[in-house]
Hints:
By secondary structure, the protein is α+β, with helices and mostly antiparallel strands. The protein is built from ten helices and ten strands.
Amino acid sequence: MAEDVLSQSEIDKLLSALSDGSVSAEEVKAEEEERKVKVYDFKRPDKFSKDQIRTLFMLHESFSRLLNTYLSASLRTMVNIEVLSVEQMTYQEFVQSMANPAVIGIIALPPLKGNIIIEVGPDIAFAYVDRVFGGEGKPSVKSRALTDIESAVMRRFIDTVINYFREAWSNVVEFRPNFETMETNPQFAQIVPPSDMVVLVTIHMKLGDVEGMMNICIPYLVLEPVMSKLTTSFWVAASVDRESSPDQVADLQRKIERTWVPFSVELGTVDITINEFLTLGFGDVLQLDTLAKDELVCYVGTNAKFRAYPGTAGKRMAVQISGIIEGDEDANER
């Protein structure tokens, strides 16, 4: 709109040109009418408004952050995931843009109708597989189809992706993702007619030094029942309500209670020289700084939390908690 506003000097030049006769009023009127014409392709009708596209962008930004956190921890490498674009196109255009072979997961989202596609770029797929198998996370030298073992690894990867996808969409609609099948040839991944409109979410992924793309194709047919909820105001309001929901707090508490943590008991310590350490052998005895009747220190993770007495329970060694170690966690860390 700002480009359509003329400055005072431009107005003066236009009035001067009209008065000189170098520019006629008819020419100005014709140019104004020409600017009002908007090209519209009836073969590709727009199904999504700008506000809905903006909401989908924010929604998948949340999904990218969740997936980024998970992959950084599980792969133990630098991971960067961000949404590049959200655009609408025909399904045929999307199929033609995919590589062959590709890693294509077809996902059902009941109770929503239809399927969606999650396509992982070959470079990212092979780098992920290599990292999972203990490698440096390098892509394949040449383009090839996945082996059976590599396909099983990528199925687990896409399973993880759709779990975080469901969590990111939970503010808009609750669905139960179901991994239907995985294809490598785009021509076999026909989920809607070629002329149907879809929204394509393009996500840039970087695993270590390898960069690539992941595409999420969502047909209009799938989103049609929830189109009214794809607005910025609804999404923000739902996010605020969900943050303060008691159900979410209870769900988080249940997840924490089921989390496994390492628990260890320190029998004692002893200081020895490097020379003594190098000459240790089978049958040598080290005298610890604790007596048989002394309390032992119990660690949860790396923090000292309890005191306990050693003993047995049946045929197993055990400890009986005798007290709680209070104080700062950093001070109690070993």
